[in-house]
Amino acid sequence: MNELITAVNDVIWGYVLIVALVACGIWFTVKTHFVQFRMVGEMFRLLTDSAVSTVEEQVKEKNGKSRHISSFQAFAVSVATRVGTGNLAGVASAIAIGGPGAVFWMWLIALIGSATAFVESTLAQLYKKKHKDSFIGGPAYYMEKGLKKRWMGILFAILITCQFGLSNNSIQANTICDAMQGAFGWSPLWVGIVLATLALIIVFGGIQRIAHVCAVLVPVMALGYLLLAIVIIVMNIELIPHVLKVIVLDAFGIEQIAGGSIGAAMMNGIKRGLFSNEAGEGSAPNAAATASTSHPVKQGLIQALGVFTDTLLVCSCTAFIILISGLYEVPELYDISLTQEALQSEVGSVGPVFIAIAILLFAFSSIIGNYYYGEANIRFITPNTKVMTAYRICSGGVMVIFGALASFELVWNIVDFFMALLTACNLVAIVLLGRYAFRLLDDYRQQKRQGIKEPVFHRSQLPEIENELECWE
Questions:
Q1: Gap between the Cα atoms of 382 and 400, Å rounded
Q2: Measured between alpha carbons, how far is 75 from 54 in angstroms, rounded to an integer?
Q3: From the CB of residue 472, how many other CB atoms can be counted at a distance below 10 Å?
Q4: Which of 81, 200, 312, 473 is least crowded, fewest Cβ atoms below 10 Å from its Cβ?
Q5: Greatest distance between any 2 Cα atoms in the chain
Q6: Residue 104 pLDDT more than 90?
């Protein structure tokens, strides 16, 4: 069964999805006039301002005045699902299988994919719906409202629930258990049971609790890991030119082209890059839609920044640590163990322990963030509370324990399969609806040129779809 899934994945990824991802990324980059490069400053401004407003919103919430999800909290939830196993185990497996050149293709898919992330998250904001204390939305909603194809929305909702709420959580648990076993010798079964218990406690608290937990965990875990990586890079600064040379030569070298390994580097780099930053996959828009903001483009810009944060920072840190160590050529090391051993070679026995703790924070925040993506899409299909309860038990409990006990190859193959189908479904939708994201971006830029610091959008500005928009009065 595992071999069959592998063969199917190779066909889908090798001949269809890579071309589609790159083509869409380039198309959106051109149509948005290189938004991911030209508006980086605005991205950081919006994120900083929203981080400050998050504190104000939490004060209001305690006083019973507000329970909105801020832009920063929505960003934190999406980064929580991005920054996880893909940054540590995913990067390691990409390098082990595809060689150092896979890192180059990770960078490329992040650079052009951030434009895709902008488009899908802007559309999610545009077509979001009111839901209790916050908002709800995502690809399923813009497929139903924008494309008027509810069947497509239901298909997407099923695929993202299988991908994130179920199979993706098995990968997070699998990596946590491997890291804990390597560092402390703990039994995967018992680690899985503890993880499942903690996850169930949080997911039954809803998006408010998820947002608050992620807003605390994400900055702490990302900064801690980045600081350690910077220290290692500075300690080995003389090796960085060599590392960069190895990455580029392995991505385009004559030997790799002649031997056919350039295809492996490209496929594994793009697959693991997509798994890590999720640009175009349709996952982050579910978190982006929950934010309360004055213009859809604001959240689109913030989510585009999340792609850079994930791949160009965190993934690169892991790649540099592994390549500096030179251990990527050891056949027995191909998952989180490669990252642990690479870190141990640089900082000693504390390395595996640090990685075990880091992956616990990275992956656990991904588990609770992944759960929400499934919840938002199950609500799209049915309001039945029994279905939701069953999903919560499966997502936070059953699949976490399954991942703790399953093999590394099996859980990754399952995720690659659903990720391919999910991404293909979302790419079709955002290509067809992308023109609205382009118009919203033009409007945002025009307001900024007029000296308006905080642009505002009203649905009357898009009269042809005004009746399809529930928010933006």
A1: 24
A2: 11
A3: 19
A4: 473
A5: 66
A6: no
Question: Which pLDDT tens digit goes with each residue over 418-438?
Answer: 888 899 999 999 999 999 999
- Stretch 403-419: mean pLDDT, rounded? 84
Considering only CA atoms, which of 417, 358, 427 is closest in space to residue 167?
417
**Banded model confidence at residue 471, pLDDT cuts 50, 70, 90:** confident
Report CA dihedral (297, 298, 302, 303) to the nearest 10 degrees: -40
| CB contact at 8 A, 202 and 216 | no
The answer for residues whose C-beta is within 8 angstroms of residue 1's C-beta and 6 or more apart is: none
pLDDT per residue as tens digits for the range 309-341: 777 787 888 889 889 888 887 777 766 778 778
Q: What is the pLDDT of residues 57-90, one digit of tens each?
A: 444 444 444 456 666 666 666 665 566 666 777 7
Q: How many Cβ atoms are within 10 Å of 144's Cβ, its own excluded? A: 20
What does the H/E/C string look like for the chain?
Answer: CHHHHHHHHHHHHHHHHHHHHHHHHHHHHHHCCCHHHHCHHHHHHHHHHHHHHHHHHHHHHHCCCCCCECHHHHHHHHHHHHCCHHHHHHHHHHHHHHCCHHHHHHHHHHHHHHHHHHHHHHHHHHCCEEECCEEECCHHHHHHHCCCCHHHHHHHHHHHHHHHHHHHHHHHHHHHHHHHHHHHCCCHHHHHHHHHHHHHHHHCCCHHHHHHHHHHHHHHHHHHHHHHHHHHHHHCHHHHHHHHHHHHHHHHCHHHHHHCHHHHHHHHHHHHHHHHHCCCCCCHHHHHCCECCCCHHHHHHHHHHHHHHHHHHHHHHHHHHHHHHCHHHCCCCCCHHHHHHHHHHHHCCHHHHHHHHHHHHHHHHHHHHHHHHHHHHHHHHCCCHHHHHHHHHHHHHHHHHHHHHCCHHHHHHHHHHHHHHHHHHHHHHHHHHHHHHHHHHHHHHHHHHCCCCCCCCCHHHCHHHHHHCCCCC
| Cβ atoms of 335 and 163 closer than 8 Å | no
Using alpha carbons, select from 102, 91, 347, 95 the residue that is nearest to residue 234: 347
Could you tell me the two tokens for 38? Answer: 């030209």
Half-sphere exposure of 419 (CA within 13 A, CB side): 27
- How sure is the predictor about 56, in pLDDT bands with cuts at 50, 70 and 90? very low
> 128-137: b or e for each residue (b if 16 or more CB lie within 10 Å)?
beeeeebbbb
CA distance 94 to 101: 9
Task: Kindly provide the b/e burial profile for residues 6-31, where b requires at least 16 CB atoms within 10 angstroms of the residue's own CB.
Answer: eeebeebbeeebbebbbebbebbbeb
CB atoms within 10 A of CB 456: 13
